[in-house]
Amino acid sequence: MTPQDGLILRADEGERLVRRWGFLATVKVDSQNGASRDLVAITEVVPAGKLIPVHKHPDADEIVILLQGTGIATIGETRRTVEAGSMLFAPKGIWMGFENTGSEDAHVVGIFSKPGYEDYLRATSVPEGHPVTPLTAAELKAVRSKFADQIVFQDESR
Q: Which among 41, 49, 95, 137 is most buried, taking Cβ atoms within 10 Å?
């Protein structure tokens, strides 16, 4: 079976990245992983007390499935408590965020209707096993500016 024929991935398989702020993210499906031209799927571990800042994708719908953990989800103006098994959906251009309010890591799956976000993910991460150096404020601003057509943050300081 070649990647063009589809993929069967275990939880620890895929392109494993460490975000410059310490979160583990794995690109599961995109043009480089599975040869998908139209879909992106990632997993991410959000440590207890941390969050995925409120953001929007100008040109892609996003679905997030909470596999493990608890927290508060934001979609547009709505904030709600969520637990394992919950699903969030944000059409393109709608604000979305997740705050891990639990005492354990939250494990999420993110699915995007169009490619692009994975490039921002790679630009703000290093391959697992490589030294993780935080981005300076200026570096983060430059990366976010470069990928503003893929992701925009409600509070650019986060």
A: 41
Report yes or no on 76 lying in a domain: yes
Boundaries of domain holding 35: 3-153
CA distance 75 to 29: 24
Closest CA to 61 of 87, 92, 36: 92
Residue 70: CATH number of its domain:
2.60.120.10
Does any domain span residue 158?
Answer: no
How many domains does the structure of the chain reveal?
A: 1
**pLDDT tens-place string over residues 124-150:** 999 999 999 999 999 999 999 999 999
**What is the Cα–Cα distance from 80 to 74, expressed in whole angstroms?**
7
Q: What is the rounded CA–CA span in Å between residue 96 and residue 86?
A: 14
CB within 8 Å of 146: residues ≥ 6 apart? 123
Residue 14 lies in a domain: yes
